[in-house]
Amino acid sequence: MCSRYSLTSPHEAVRAYFAYGNEHAFPPRYNIAPTDPAAIVRSGARHARELVLVRWGLIPSWVRDIDKFATLINARAETLAEKPSFRGAIRHKRCLVPADGFYEWTGPRGNKQPHYIHRAGWQPGVPDADVPPLAFAGLYEDWLGPDGSEIDTMAIITVPANDMMKPIHDRMPALLEPADFDAWLDCRNVDIEEAVSLLRPAPDAMLWSTAVSPAVNNPRAEGPELLMPAAPKLI
After folding, report:
1. What is the 3-state secondary structure (H, E, C) of the chain?
2. Which residues are annotated as catalytic?
């Protein structure tokens, strides 16, 4: 699963990579957690790409009482067309989730070691225009409450881990490259079967893993120090 990620790339770099037309600003986030505001890119008016902020944790449109519904932060690619919570969104509301990397943990409860999974070549605190953001495949929903309240939400799609990830976790976000963005976002002309065929584990050489500070274990922690390599453990 994916339960924490970051997005700290400059707006200009994110906008250039995802080619959206609006100029929505967002602050750098080093530790995005479930229920936090999260940026997504979707097909908007006249099918132009737009970036909007939504809540991480999908609420299907048919839910009546959100207080009794466990929000869905991830959706498994293998069962998207079968699960009632995702059947409508995979057909009509696909999106991209910009990120720089995501976190996973190893080790026993109470002594978990966080790992930051990022593009090969990325280094903490070293801006590099040759290391673009990542694009998670996602789904979004618009929930309308009986009192007229509205909440826009999203979930990140996961696939089986590649060989690089397997020692850390058995799942990983589905990553898309720019050549697949149009097909993924085109819910009018690209059907479920074709869209799901784009969801596969990333190539092993695409990503690296860096053990980082346990400070990120706190979902309220923020700041660039979270991405610094962890100090070696004494034996």
Report:
1. CCCCEEECCCHHHHHHHHCCCCCCCCCCEEEECCCCEEEEEEECHHHCEEEEEEEECECCCCCCCHHHCCCECEEEHHHCCCCHHHHHHHHHCEEEEEECEEEEEECCCCCCEEEEEEECCCECCECCCCCCCEEEEEEEEEEECCCCCEEEEEEEEEEECCCCCCCCCCEEECECCHHHHHHHHCCCCCCHHHHHCCCCCCCHHHEEEEEECHHHHCCCCCCHHHHCECCCCCC
2. 2, 104
Cα–Cα distances (Å) from 203 to 65, 119, 150, 163, in that order, read 41, 11, 38, 9
Query: Are 154 and 142 within 8 A, CB to CB?
Result: no
0.85 exceeded by the pTM?
Answer: yes
Provide the phi-psi class of 200: left if phi over 0, else alpha when psi is between -120 and 50, else beta: beta
Pairing of strands 113-119, 171-173: unpaired
pLDDT in tens, 47-84: 899 999 999 999 998 888 888 888 899 999 999 999 99
pLDDT digits (tens, 9 = 90+) for 178-207: 999 999 999 999 999 999 999 999 999 999
Cα pseudo-dihedral 230, 232, 234, 235, rounded to 10: 120
